[in-house]
Amino acid sequence: MPRLLLFNKPFDVLSQFTDASGRATLADYLSLPGVYPAGRLDRDSEGLLLLTDDGGLAHQLTHPHKRTWKTYLAQVEGEIDDAALARLRQGVKLKEGPTLPARARRIAEPEWLWPRDPPVRYRARIPTSWLELQIREGRNRQVRRMTAAVGFPTLRLIRTQVGSYRLDRLSPGSWRVLQVKENPPPKGRSRHKTRSGPPKRP
Prior knowledge:
Layout: E1 3-9, E2 36-37, E3 46-52, H1 55-62, E4 70-77, H2 82-90, E5 93-94, E6 97-98, E7 103-107, E8 128-135, H3 142-149, E9 154-162, E10 165-166, E11 175-179, E12 192-195
Parallel strand pairs: 3-9
Antiparallel strand pairs: 1-3, 1-11, 2-3, 4-8, 4-9, 5-6, 7-8, 9-10, 11-12
């Protein structure tokens, strides 16, 4: 039976198991053999990363034609306004072409959110705000490029959901294993276990 691992990737960790330069990787946090990332999450982004030992499941989760919704929380520079949110919802023109319409709404900073290490640089004269952004594509650094294109550069980015799979407040560096059948199971019908605690690498 395929395994699917939900991992809360910390900031400054690569979405791979090895690195010739000695940077932090998944191997510093995960001890489950035989699983590989289904998609990726940039080094400077945090949150939900899916890994699996099943190629078919990885294809289902990541193939562009599936247009799987992915949800992000973004802290941006400046007080994002309705005009910028409307542009995100319509689709933003990037260098390689326009994005698909997104779902975007302004939110308060989540109370449950863990502090980032290192913290985002504080500038007294420049306010920040938060938005929830849902996209169905996987272009390189897409969310950051979209918010920058509407005038609000991203300072911090956390992915909280991929398809029906949610971060569910896993702490940074923690992971949960699901036993799945051929397709992602409905919420609440998967057996799982959560691992937490300090990573193997100090």
